[in-house]
Design a protein that fits this description.
Blueprint: H1 2-9, H2 11-33, E1 58-65, E2 68-75, E3 78-83, E4 86-91, E5 94-99, E6 102-106, H3 120-125, E7 127-134, E8 140-147, H4 148-154, E9 166-174, E10 177-183, E11 188-194, E12 206-207, H5 213-217
Parallel strand pairs: 6-12
Antiparallel strand pairs: 1-2, 1-11, 2-3, 3-4, 4-5, 5-6, 7-8, 8-9, 9-10, 10-11
Length: 218
């Protein structure tokens, strides 16, 4: 004990002890923390804004109901097809038949003939998924149920239907692309034929105007 007291009272010896302790302390700090790299925290990436799918406004498709297949050309907002040997056109949200080089306004000859391709994602959002079926040819069929009133509302159609009426439909995909939509409840289907090189629709015809009574009497 006396020996330790003598060493501690010796200023020179005490200085050496403190120096050794400092060296040991800094050596420990360097060994423990010196090899650690500083963790760099990068700012989180901003969520990628989901872009709305680009609309395809021109394409050719088949409207199939029962044994009847009707070929339809859609070029932007204009449609052209032939039914029962009569040429029909959809121009400025109205249907016309072409007779003797004139357009005559008519009722829609194809019920529920809408632009489903550009509305499909919107329809799916209000639908209930039922099942997926995969076939040997590689086709994938997704089946859905949707409320009929809500379905028609997507297209701005006001039709008296029971609020509980449901529509069952299926989308057929090949290589993740929709090639067909089957409206099972309504018993018709849409088959897409082409999305490229869609021909122009000739609408250069005169629109028939119903003569007023005074003109008829003359």
């Amino acid at each position: 004990m006396e020996r330790i007291k003598e060493i501690w009272e010796n200023r020179k010896t005490r200085g050496i002890i403190f120096l050794v302790l400092y060296v040991l302390l800094f050596s420990y700090i360097f060994i423990v923390y010196g090899n650690k790299t500083e963790k760099i925290i990068l700012p989180e990436n901003k969520p990628i804004k989901e872009e709305k799918p680009k609309e395809i406004n021109s394409y050719e498709y088949e409207y199939i109901i029962g044994e009847e297949t009707i070929d339809i050309i859609k070029n932007n907002d204009t449609l052209n097809f032939k039914k029962d040997d009569i040429d029909y056109y959809y121009i400025n949200q109205k249907y016309y038949k072409l007779e003797e080089e004139k357009f005559y306004e008519v009722e829609n000859p194809l019920k529920y003939n809408f632009d489903y391709y550009n509305k499909l994602e919107e329809i799916k959002k209000i639908s209930t998924f039922v099942k997926t079926s995969k076939y040997a040819n590689g086709n994938v069929e997704d089946n859905y149920d949707v409320n009929m009133a809500q379905f028609l509302d997507v297209f701005g159609i006001k039709e008296e239907v029971d609020a509980k009426d449901m529509l069952n439909y299926s989308t057929i995909k090949v290589d993740d692309k929709v090639v067909e939509i089957d409206f099972n409840t309504l018993d018709f289907k849409i088959k897409y034929k082409s999305f490229k090189n869609i021909p122009e629709i000739n609408t250069n015809y005169e629109f028939y105007v119903e003569p007023i009574e005074s003109e008829i009497e003359e």
